[in-house]
Design brief:
Layout (H helix, E strand, L loop, with lengths): L2 H6 L1 H5 L3 E5 L4 H13 L5 E6 L7 H9 L5 H6 L7 E5 L11 H10 L2 E4 L10 H20 L6 E5 L10 E2 L10 H10 L2 H12 L5 H16 L5 E6 L1 E3 L16 H10 L5 E3 L8 E3 H16 L10 E5 L9 H14 L12 E3 L2 H25 L6 H19 L4 E2 L2 H8 L17 H16 L7 H32 L2 H16 L1
Parallel strand pairs: 1-2, 1-4, 2-3, 4-5, 5-7, 6-13, 7-11, 8-10, 9-12
Helix pairs in contact: 3-12, 7-8, 7-10, 11-17, 13-17, 14-15
């Protein structure tokens, strides 16, 4: 591999190199593996940190991972490339990543590029668990990286939301008064019950343990950046694929607006605690992976003696037409008439409110009471009740997300835009077209992706799904009409209705 080729060509930079990736079973991890294998075909090998599960070893977990439709294109065109994938047993939740000494030495001897995308993304994790998963694991990986003589770049996947105590976030590293070393010591020594009581005070302005620990993980990277070249990439909310790279609309989780539309279209999510007018920030996963690889290449061509700074990049939807929460809802439900899901428990509809008192009332009327009624019917029929438990999870998720659905941020991404604009023709596989994004088409493909890849539904059954949707709409309208008629009847019987009519007539007469 020539130095000139490595500096000008992204595939040339990765040629002959051994890569180490954490978080490989996650959304970003899967797409990163696929993109590296497909667009950088001369990579030597990719080590994958994987946690053995009960009854399933890391080799079997890797085989299961590769059955995902995401890898179909590679499987058909270059099936031998999967031989470059080497699973390594480990666990980011345990000290020293749970690595065996022999595996640790193998990584030290052979790895030259690290992508650290592993993290716990749960907002309701205990502070202790979040510290272990997101801060201590980053420290332990940095310690490992410090021993790697061939390391040319360490890329840490953060999030734009780790700085949400600021409403304008620049692509710089922000200082903090909280010591990450002391934070790890506290998690390792303080009783979990006491730590739970002190969590909100310790996190100060941060709304949950995820963003708090991701903020401190950036400080870990900064403190180790004098030992090896480092990159911090902060994507915003990562959702379905935009381009055919390799599959339009591919998605593997219910995060973001696609998950909200799925919940609403199924009749499960009837009310969302959100400001309808805020504009949220979402980026396609295929674009996030391209930026991840581009930033690794750009930083990796400069040695630590040439540049000791941490390269920080925000990757947000700036320069893309963005929609408000309400606009996404309206467009999404319009698309869901064209592409309904197979099974629903009620006619699709989600009300948005940023008033807490109204949210609680609507939650009780539209979520809790119907769930109790339906579960009661299920019990009478000898079936297992499940809807109330599901709605409890919906409520917890709604509350956990409320800080993000009620506020708006501006994430500056000038550095990423400069990187994209400076790419040469030989790196065309990594180019991003910000200009010609059709938002409606993107969400349409996202809904199709959710239907196929999340819900395992067949697009050939679309007509049956449409007929089922019409039946649900009809049933909804009938019950709504009966309910309104019943209320009016009660008002009439109690002479309340006539009093209301007389009052309106009197007001009108006075105004005239």
């Amino acid at each position: 591999m020539g130095m000139d080729t490595a500096e000008s060509s992204i595939p040339g930079f990765f040629a002959g190199r051994s890569i180490f990736i954490t978080g490989v079973t996650g959304f970003i991890g899967k797409v990163l593996i696929e993109k590296l294998l497909r667009s950088c075909p001369d990579i030597k090998e990719i080590f994958l940190l994987m946690r053995p599960k009960k009854g399933i070893g890391i080799d079997d977990r890797l085989k299961n991972l590769l059955t995902n439709k995401l890898f179909d294109k590679l499987r058909n065109e270059r099936p031998s490339c999967f031989e470059k994938l080497v699973p390594v047993a480990g666990d980011i939740g345990t000290e020293d990543l749970g690595l065996l000494p022999v595996d640790r030495q193998m990584l030290i001897d052979r790895v030259s590029v690290i992508f650290h995308s592993a993290a716990s993304v749960r907002f309701d994790d205990s502070l202790k668990d979040a510290i272990f998963f997101n801060i201590r694991s980053t420290r332990d990986l940095c310690i490992l990286a410090s021993s790697m003589k061939n390391l040319v770049v360490f890329v840490h996947v953060s999030t734009t939301y780790c700085q949400i105590d600021k409403y304008v976030v620049d692509d710089i590293l922000y200082p903090t008064d909280i010591d990450w070393r002391r934070t790890i010591e506290i998690a390792e020594s303080v009783d979990e019950y006491i730590l739970k009581i002190l969590t909100m005070k310790y996190m100060c302005a941060m709304p949950n343990t995820y963003v708090f620990t991701k903020m401190l993980a950036e400080q870990v990277i900064n403190d180790y950046s004098e030992s090896f070249p480092c990159v911090i990439l902060r994507p915003s909310i990562v959702i379905s694929m935009l381009d055919e790279d390799p599959i339009k609309g591919w998605i593997d989780n219910f995060n973001g607006p696609i998950g909200t539309l799925v919940g609403g279209s199924k009749g499960i999510l009837r009310v969302l605690y959100a400001d309808p007018n805020i504009i949220s920030d979402y980026v396609p996963v295929d674009w996030a992976i391209k930026i991840l690889i581009i930033t690794a290449w750009k930083r990796g061509t400069k040695t630590i003696s040439e540049d000791k700074t941490v390269h920080v990049y925000n990757f947000s939807a700036n320069k893309i037409k963005k929609l408000s929460v309400n606009q996404i809802q309206e467009m999404g439900y319009e698309l869901l008439r064209e592409i309904p899901f197979d099974t629903t428990i009620w006619s699709p509809s989600t009300m948005l409110t940023n008033r807490r008192w109204l949210y609680y009332i609507l939650m009780l009327l539209l979520h809790i009471l119907p769930s109790i009624f339906i579960d009661g019917v299920l019990i009478l029929c000898g079936a297992k009740p499940k809807l109330l438990n599901l709605q409890r999870k919906v409520y917890i998720t709604n509350n956990a997300l409320s800080h993000f659905t009620l506020n708006e941020w501006n994430f500056n991404n000038a550095k990423v835009l400069d990187l994209i604009n400076s790419l040469s023709v030989e790196n065309k596989d990594f180019r991003i077209n910000y200009v010609d994004v059709n938002i409606r088409e993107y969400f349409k493909n996202g809904i199709i992706g959710a239907k196929i890849y999340l819900l395992n539904e067949d697009m050939n059954n679309l007509e049956v799904a449409k007929r089922n949707r019409k039946r649900m709409d009809l049933l909804h309208n009938i019950i709504k009409t009966i309910f309104i008629t019943f209320i009016l009847w009660i008002l009439y019987r109690k002479n309340i209705l006539s009093n209301i009519v007389n009052a309106i007539a009197y007001i009108f007469y006075i105004n005239v």
